[in-house]
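Translate structure to sequence.
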């Protein structure tokens, strides 16, 4: 820190001394400028004096010219030039007016008199032709310069007019010109008056040189013009050159010193800027560009503005880092929140959030999908909107008691959809608490368990059916043994009587009984075999084409021998329209009809049995067997086709049976691609008592 203070002090002293020198230099330069101003002003004055002197000289010539041309003797002189008169009057006056030349012309511009005080330079008239002279004299008083080649002459001329013509309006009687030679003597005179150096440039090139001269500020140029205004010479005047040069000489070392100090000051300033300003700025810029605040560690220790700036940038980096971290955290939280909200919304389970008053504040899509209500209808209302009214007040009280005491409630609701349909939901309601543990909301997650419930119900039914089937099977087995045992007992009993019997008639009777019972036994065994074949899918559908009438005739013959049923008449109804043949499985169709007709005989005490068929649309044929028997109770009509089922209308001990006849029939009909149904009336109120079995098969 001490080191840096010392450095700062030395830099400060350096700059201060440079500043003092710069101040000194400034004073010196401004003094010189003041001197220069004074010189310039004095030069301007001198130039004015020179101008006035030349003008004054010129005016004397004009006066001379004016006086002599307004003189009657002069006009006479034009007509009769008299050299004596000229000597006395013109040449002597020329001395007074310091004039070197005089010329007199006639009105037609013929020279009548010419004189030069400088005997060596006689000018025989003006160096112009007649036309030019006429042009020159068109002005009453003309004044101009002529360049003779080696010197310049100032010319003044005027027309000669009578003295009584005060306004000089009459025609010229002649012309009078005078000239003053601007020789070295004359120029020296001017130099004396104005304390200057005068050069007459008759070649018109020194002016250019003078302009490019170093001391052009001290030089004045006067243009001397001819009669036609064209420059004929330049009068170049240089004033006070010596004074100015000496001042300049005196100031030269000051200038030199000034330049050196200025250069030193500039270099020092630049170095200072680089050290104090540029370097730290570059450091800060670099740190900002590369986002690397480590570069600022050293700079931020400085106790000046740049140190503070570096600290600020350093801090801003830190804040930026924190901010970036915060933004990342927030983005992560937001994406997690989005994911959660999506998951909740896409959940197949209904999710409902209510406030503590039970008003719904949120519900996911599943709620609307399951219940059929719109979101607008649900939000703001209470879960009562879904109520079917099946839950008791006590159950609701228990629910509220559980959740308000901060516990989770689990249970099932039978709810009602918007369209009135009922559905089951298993529901879990849990309280949502804030950071102080106070309940702010309730979250209900509800699962549609309608199908599950139905399945359970089906399962219970199936279980009951299985139990029933088991019971039926036991009954079947008991029946079977009874069914088999009864004919077997008769067969064995009568067979044991046969050896001791002598009467042929009785023997024949016994033999018939044995045969019938055997036949019955075979029938029972056939039924069981057929049933088991059907169960194990060993039977196949073998279609053939045959006439229905042939089948009916065969059945008629089969039941002809049933002497036991003398009080029952079997009819075969023939359809009105006759068809040649049908195509289906002959044996199976015979088996079906045989079983149904057998049942009709079994469960009919008296009356008629009708067997018939008719053709239906789509190449189907409907067969029926109707009887006037005991009929089937309504509760049994759907169950009689179940295996082992025996109707409640039959007395199992008196009417023989196994309960598999109709189930065989049903299986065979379905194997042939048809359907079977039964209609029946047990009482004969308005109806004929009895049953009608119908089935339809494709033919
Ligand atoms: P089974 O005749 O050996 O008892 P089935 O399977 O043939 O067994 O018949 C089942 C039940 O259907 C019978 O026990 C009976 O209750 C009833 N049933 C069948 N046919 C008739 C019918 N024609 N009239 C009245 N009841 C019948």
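Result:
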């Amino acid at each position: 820190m001490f080191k840096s203070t010392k450095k700062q002090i030395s830099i400060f002293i350096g700059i201060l001394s440079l500043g003092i020198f710069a101040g000194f230099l400034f004073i010196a330069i401004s003094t010189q400028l003041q001197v220069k101003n004074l010189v310039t002003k004095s030069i301007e004055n001198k130039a004015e004096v020179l101008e006035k002197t030349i003008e004054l000289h010129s005016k004397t010539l004009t006066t001379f010219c004016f006086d002599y041309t307004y003189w009657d003797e002069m006009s006479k002189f034009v007509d009769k030039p008299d050299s004596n008169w000229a000597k006395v009057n013109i040449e002597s006056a020329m001395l007074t007016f310091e004039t070197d030349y005089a010329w007199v012309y006639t009105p037609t511009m013929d020279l009548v008199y010419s004189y030069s005080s400088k005997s060596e330079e006689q000018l025989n008239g003006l160096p112009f032709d007649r036309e030019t002279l006429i042009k020159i004299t068109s002005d009453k008083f003309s004044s101009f310069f002529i360049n003779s080649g080696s010197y310049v002459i100032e010319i003044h001329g005027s027309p000669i007019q009578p003295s009584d013509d005060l306004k000089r309006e009459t025609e010229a009687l002649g012309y009078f010109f005078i000239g003053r030679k601007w020789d070295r003597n004359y120029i020296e005179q001017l130099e004396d008056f104005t304390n200057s150096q005068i050069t007459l440039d008759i070649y018109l090139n020194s002016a250019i040189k003078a302009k490019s001269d170093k001391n052009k500020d001290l030089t004045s140029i006067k243009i001397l013009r001819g009669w036609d205004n064209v420059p004929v010479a330049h009068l170049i005047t240089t004033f006070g050159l010596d004074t100015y040069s000496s001042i300049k000489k005196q100031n030269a070392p000051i200038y030199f010193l000034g330049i050196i100090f200025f250069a030193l000051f500039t270099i020092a300033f630049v170095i200072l800027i680089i050290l104090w300003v540029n370097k730290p700025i570059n450091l800060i810029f670099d740190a900002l560009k590369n986002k690397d605040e480590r570069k600022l560690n050293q700079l931020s220790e400085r106790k000046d503005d740049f140190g503070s700036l570096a600290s600020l940038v350093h801090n801003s980096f830190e804040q930026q880092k924190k901010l970036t971290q915060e933004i990342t955290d927030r983005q992560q939280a937001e994406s997690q929140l989005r994911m959660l909200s999506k998951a909740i919304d896409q959940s197949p389970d209904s999710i409902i959030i209510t406030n503590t008053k039970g008003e719904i504040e949120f519900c996911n899509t599943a709620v609307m999908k399951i219940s059929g209500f719109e979101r607008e209808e649900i939000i703001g209302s209470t879960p009562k909107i879904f109520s079917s009214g099946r839950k008791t007040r006590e159950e609701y009280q228990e629910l509220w008691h559980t959740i308000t005491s901060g516990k989770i409630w689990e249970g099932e609701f039978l709810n009602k959809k918007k369209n009135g349909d009922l559905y089951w939901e298993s529901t879990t309601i849990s309280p949502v608490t804030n950071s102080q543990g106070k309940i702010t909301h309730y979250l209900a997650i509800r699962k549609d368990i309608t199908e599950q419930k139905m399945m359970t119900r089906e399962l219970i039914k199936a279980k009951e059916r299985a139990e029933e089937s088991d019971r039926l099977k036991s009954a079947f087995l008991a029946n079977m043994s009874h069914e088999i045992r009864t004919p077997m007992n008769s067969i064995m009993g009568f067979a044991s009587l046969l050896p001791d019997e002598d009467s042929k008639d009785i023997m024949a009777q016994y033999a018939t009984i044995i045969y019938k019972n055997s036949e019955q036994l075979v029938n029972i065994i056939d039924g069981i075999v057929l049933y088991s074949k059907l169960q194990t899918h060993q039977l196949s559908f073998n279609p053939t084409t045959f006439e229905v009438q042939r089948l009916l005739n065969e059945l008629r013959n089969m039941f002809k021998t049933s002497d036991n049923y003398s009080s029952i008449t079997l009819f075969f109804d023939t359809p009105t329209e006759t068809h040649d043949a049908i195509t289906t499985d002959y044996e199976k169709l015979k088996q079906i009809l045989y079983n149904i007709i057998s049942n009709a005989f079994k469960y009919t005490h008296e009356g008629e049995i009708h067997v018939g068929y008719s053709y239906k649309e789509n190449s189907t044929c409907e067969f029926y067997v109707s009887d006037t028997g005991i009929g089937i109770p309504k509760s049994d009509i759907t169950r009689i086709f179940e295996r082992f089922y025996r109707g409640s209308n039959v007395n199992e001990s008196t009417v023989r049976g196994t309960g598999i006849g109709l189930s065989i029939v049903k299986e065979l009909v379905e194997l042939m691609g048809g359907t079977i149904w039964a209609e029946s009336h047990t009482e004969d109120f308005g109806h004929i008592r009895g049953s009608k079995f119908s089935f339809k098969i494709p033919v």
